[in-house]
Amino acid sequence: MNKLFALSVLTLAISQTVFADNLPELSVTASRLQAFPGNSALDQNQLNITRSSDSASLLTDIPGVSLYSAGGVSSLPVIHGMADDRINVEVDGMSLMPACPNHMNSPLSYIDSSNVANVKVYAGITPVSSSGDSIGGSILVKSAAPVFAAPGQGTLSSAELGAFYRSNGNAHGENVNASVASDYLSLSYSGSTAQSGDYTAAQNFKSVYATPNGLVGANVVGSSAYKSENQALNFALRQDNKLFELSAAVQSVPFEGFPNQRMDMTGNNNTSFNFHYTADYDWGMLESRVYNQQTSHSMNFGDDRQFMYGNAPGMPMDTSGKTNGVLLKGDIIFSARDVLRVGAEVQNYRLNDWWPASGTGMMMSPNTFQNINNGSRDRFDIFGEWEARWNPQWMSQFGVRNDMVKMDTSNVQGYSSMYATDANSFNSLNHAHTDQNWDLTALSRYTPNSTQSYEFGYAQKSRSANLDQLYTWSANSMAAIMNNMAGDGNGYVGNNNLKPEVAHTLSTTASWHDAEQAQWAAALTPYYTYIDNYIDAQCLPGKTCKPNQFNVLQYVNQSAQIYGIDLSGHHHLGKFGNYGDITAKAVLSYTRGENLTTGDNLYNIMPLNTRLSLEQRTGSWSNSAELQLVEAKTDVSQLRNEIKTGGYSLFNLRSSYELNQKIRIDFGIDNLFNKFYSLPLGGVYVGQGSTMSINGIPYGIAVAGMGRSIYTGMTMKF
Questions:
Q1: What pLDDT does residue 329 have?
Q2: 10 Å Cβ neighbour count for 672?
Q3: Which of 71, 300, 404, 467 has its CB 3.0 to 4.6 Å from that of 256, i.e. a possible disulfide?
Q4: CB–CB of 259/208 below 8 Å?
Q5: Upper half-sphere CA count for residue 276 (Cβ side, 13 Å)
Q6: pTM (two decimals)
Q7: Can you list the positions of beta strands (E) in 307-449?
Q8: Residue 49 confidence (pLDDT)
């Protein structure tokens, strides 16, 4: 913590020194300091927030991106078969950490979809200046930038109100955004609420379950209800070439069910503070950031699950997490050809996960179960990146990054003496880890003319294990199934000997388009990744893993490979009188993942899938028809007894009407023909019944997808 404080002071001191008013000024243009190719971007006009309250769902149209299903506002994005903290996810520049043994409070769950202004995704090779401690790409999500009045304009004020309703689950919510600004000061506020009951599938897929509050029907996806509340306040000051921003955000999630986890989130309270400072000059740009996030998280059994176990009223589980981060980065223009990016980053993370006693039996009393006690994970990063524009046709980028990751934890205890053997074994170990991780990137782009470009590159990216993978310690099946980030129903035990994952990626992208990039475009991206020390799983030593049931597994380093291809494109078909402009779009992705040590398939790999759509625009109307096709998932993880899922096709309709750029009405139908399907990345259904017992619920039921849902929403701007 002292190092963090010292670097914070140093950052501000450098800012005050370097930003002296006698330095020449220049607004650095995007063309000179653009992010290297290989990324996809969406702006607010492309983000449909009415269909879902889950911010991760905004990414589904990006080639190579899919979603692990989780809670209603907490899906985990997947890039080329890698998910969760294998991906660098930043919200307004903050690299946030889940504070939950099931990773229920994922980074994107901390920003409401209505507050997302733009998204950038590095699905191929991520520049070292954009991320460290990750191997699967980067997702950068930002809320709206501050708006200032023009000089002499006086006070500028605006407001936006929105509301939505979705029929499946009776989901509804509201959001408000308001701002007031002069030519140098800006103040904005955003607030939102969203809630839903359990959603229903298109047909019965499991048994009816009786609860004290009524029946969970055979077509109801139990434990899928949620309620979320978000508020954020942003203050910005603009002075010549400098911009100061200070934001504060508060989130409260009173309840969120998880149909593929043994527990539900019964409370999640989060606060964050984010200070950002940038300035542009003729020598380049300087950026600094200091942020803090604190999370209080609780889990237990919701209404759709068995609550009483003997005389034990539920199984309360509490977690607290705290993240502090500091970033200092400079983009230095050496010449018309060369740009050098250098920077340093520090992140301190603290985690406590404890389970209060419940009842009087030895299973869950009389002590507090310490799952992770005083866990710490600190990163100290430095990086350098050289980008050169050799001529109008050739551009290159080379980067090096070093991440030092230090992790530790204190001794633990179980509920009672029946956990003593595992606890004593864990406590006898040296828990301290220090990993020196190196990232290397080499990329190039060739643009022979205005209608085509070719990108190719290599990256070595590294990631250290998270605290749950290292330090969860109990082999007791009841405790182990509460530590599960995969949603597969199995129990997991940590491994204190885990080494960092090191991924070697080769990727290339060929792009073709018309000279104005307005009529048509197509892009093809094949990729291959070999991962040394891939953190997969093995049957817990001393245990026997059986088929067609849930088992207890342990994290272990192995070798893996992932390869695939993304194809995307669009074509403006023309303007057809009163029918307006019509454009066809297509996205296709294929991913294959294999464990090279065991010969098994990697878990939760999205099968071949495509989205085909026709979009029509005329006047104030915008309409689209979309067909989603997904192949059957047959390449499954044998170790995890992963469930195979069938292929399916879904048809969706969307429409919007905008009146004078002040009022927008959205309407649509998802799964128009009410087709039944199982989610390929939804995991196993454990959303009802006796979920504390490892095999006290049926095995082999996949989480069902949502049946037909009609939605509508309205946004008014003032």
A1: 97
A2: 16
A3: 71
A4: no
A5: 16
A6: 0.92
A7: 308-309, 312-313, 317-333, 338-355, 369-389, 394-408, 433-449
A8: 72
C-alpha 24: how far from its chain's center?
40
DSSP class of residue 30? Answer: T
CA pair distance 131, 389, nearest whole angstrom:
22
Question: Could you say which residues of the chain have pLDDT below 70?
Answer: 1-48
- How far apart, in whole angstroms, are the C-alpha atoms of residue 301 and residue 254? 13
> Does residue 356 have a cis bond before it (omega within 30 degrees)?
no
DSSP 499-512: PPEEEEEEEEEEEE
Domain that holds residue 691: 2-717
680 conformational bin, left if phi > 0, alpha if psi -120 to 50, beta if neither: alpha
Say how far apart CA 291 and CA 246 lie, in whole Å: 10
What integer pLDDT is reported at residue 505 of this predicted model? 97
Q: SS3 of 70, please?
A: coil
**What 3-state DSSP class applies to 59?**
helix
Tokens of 359: 């009842």
Instruction: List pLDDT tens digits, range 613-631.
Output: 999 999 999 999 999 999 9
Closest CA to 254 of 236, 268, 240: 268
Cβ neighbours, 10 Å, residue 625: 15
Which CATH number do you get for residue 676?
Answer: 2.40.170.20
How far, rounded to the nearest angstrom, does the alpha carbon of residue 189 sit from its chain's CA centroid? 24
Number of structural domains the chain divides into: 1
Outline where DSSP puts E strands in 476-551: 491-493, 501-513, 520-539
> Is residue 18 classed as helix, strand or coil in its secondary structure?
helix
* CA of residue 638 relative to chain centroid, distance: 26
Structure tokens at 138: 């980067």
In this structure, the dihedral spanned by the alpha carbons of residues 49, 55, 57 and 59, taken in order and rounded to 10 degrees, is 100
The beta-strand segments (E) located in 103-155 are 118-122, 138-142
Cα–Cα distance, 684 to 53 (Å, whole number): 22
Q: Is 84 within 8 Å of 11 (Cβ atoms)?
A: no
Write phi, then psi, for 451 (nearest 5 degrees). Answer: -115, 5
Please answer whether residues 183 and 236 qualify as being in contact, where contact means their C-beta atoms are separated by less than 8 angstroms: no
> Residue 3's Cα: distance from chain center in Å?
28
pLDDT tens digits, one per residue of 107-151? 999 999 888 888 899 987 899 998 899 999 999 999 999 999 998
pLDDT in tens, 396-427: 999 999 999 999 999 999 999 999 999 999 99
CB-based contact 130:88 (threshold 8 Å): yes
Residue 680 tokens read as 């390929």
Tell me how many degrees the CA angle 500-502-507 measures, rounded to the nearest 5.
Answer: 155
Angle made by CA atoms 146, 324, 471, in degrees to the nearest 5: 135
Please tell me the predicted confidence (pLDDT) of residue 614.
Answer: 96
**Cα–chain center distance at 195:** 20
Q: How far apart are CA 522 and CA 511, in angstroms?
A: 6
Cα 541 to Cα 80, 503, 546, 556: the distances in Å are 31, 27, 14, 11
